[in-house]
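INPUT
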Amino acid sequence: SQKIEQNSEALNIQEGKTATLTCNYTNYSPAYLQWYRQDPGRGPVFLLLIRENEKEKRKERLKVTFDTTLKQSLFHITASQPADSATYLCALVYYGQNFVFGPGTRLSVLP
Amino acid sequence: DTGVSQDPRHKITKRGQNVTFRCDPISEHNRLYWYRQTLGQGPEFLTYFQNEAQLEKSRLLSDRFSAERPKGSFSTLEIQRTEQGDSAMYLCASSSLWRGTQETQYFGPGTRLLVL
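OUTPUT
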């Protein structure tokens, strides 16, 4: 079965720095990959999507890359702010629309 | 509010009791998913519906779990004879999938279940 690993469980960075979160998977590559943000006690919220034939996507301070050879996606938050503190989940989506979520990385941006 | 809603938000029950959760998706969405999430883990797929048809069910899902989506609108998830291991956050998500599009899921706030 597909196994997804994300960073370490928690990542602490200083405000203003770039946070880089990783999502590594085994086995076959998905049709596309998504990143979600989850705050404590709430459901995940969609942030970005990247297709298997795309290398990079950007949205404001967010950037995601996707390397199917390495079986890895990187998620960057530039000029990080304390409000960016949350758990970030990657989700692999396969044809047939089966979503597989990673365990998440808890990001803390320190002022 | 036109987002996904779930009821109740919290449920405490005794082992062996039955519980039922409700999810109201975004009205024009044709797909509805149920997930379970425990502390420090990502959402784990349980089952999903396209309109009123239940298309997939996780092999990990016990026979004590059943879900329905009558008329393709709201959905219910029932857990019979609850066990302490069922304690988790139960998340519902809905989406709209049409040919040529990529699917994005919109999650509800979740129902937190505690089995004593």
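end of record. The longest strand of chain A covers residues 86-94.
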